[in-house]
Amino acid sequence: MIEGMPAPRLVAFDLDDTLAPSKSPLDPQMLETFASLLEVVPVAVISGGNFQQFEQQLVTPLRKRPGLRLEDLHLMPTCGTRYYAWEQDWTLQYAEDLTEDEKARALAAVEAQATAAGYWESETWGPILEDRGSQITFSALGQSAPVDVKKRWDPTGAKKDDLRRLVQAELPDLEVRSGGSTSIDITRKGIDKAYGMQRLAELTGVALADMLFVGDRLDPEGNDYPVKALGVPTHAVTGWEDTDAFLRQLIPTLRTA
Q: Secretion signal: which residues (predicted)?
């Protein structure tokens, strides 16, 4: 736990490269640790993926574990531009969708800038561009590219950070952030993970100062950074193994808090 910080009343996470490898299900060990955390404190997951990705990576495996209170799990896909709560099933609470004009300009800008910079690849696994309603996502190698291939494409994150800056300059009225290992996410201006966390505080009654956010992209270029800039207590990780080790230290302190 963060030194000097009281026990959090809610723990929030990024998904890709924080709880799981990019677009992959949680490792069984991480799933067990996550379920143990959910038994002692409400949990939120706020990430760039769409709801279907959340279902595949997290929700479906969790539902196979009996006795969990899904009412204590808050799902905020597409960088918090959407929020789902459990009410006998997952129910959409809000969606900050892009307009058709915003979508068209975002799609055109990211394709043009990626092509000009040499980041538009010919060999891909699934679509490079995806309209997620409240978010446009660029995945350099496609939505279903193998994790090891994505790591080789941009091991330092320099390519996607460069592309983020290029696209942001062309879309000053929208929000452009580096997302997963090969992706950037485009949302409405000011509708980012900080917005999602603020809405989460309103909807749960848990103050931002009483939350803890865990993510792998808390650097200024990353899509987790707005949460840090908001003043929410944060913990930076480098992958799911790092998150698992941190939670194994955190959970016992929450049980006795």
A: none
List, in sequence order, every residue forming a beta bridge with 138; answer none if it has no partner: 129, 184
What is the chain's Cα-based Rg? 17
Lowest mean pLDDT among 62-66, 101-105, 157-161, 169-173: 62-66
Give yes or no for residue 2 having a pLDDT over 60.
Answer: no
Q: What does the pLDDT read at residue 1?
A: 53
User: Which residue from 125, 119, 102, 194 is spatially nearest to 164, judged by alpha carbons?
Assistant: 119
CB 113 within 8 A of CB 128: no
pLDDT digits (tens, 9 = 90+) for 48-89: 889 999 999 999 988 888 788 899 999 999 999 999 999 989
Q: Give the burial class of 4: count Cβ atoms within 10 A of its Cβ; 0-12 exposed, 13-18 middle, 19 or more buried.
A: exposed
pLDDT at 178: 87
- Look up residue 116 and give its two tokens: 């000009």
Q: Is the pLDDT of residue 220 over 60?
A: yes
> Cα–Cα distance between 235 and 2 in angstroms, integer?
8
pLDDT (tens digit, 9 = 90+) per residue, 228-240? 999 999 999 999 9
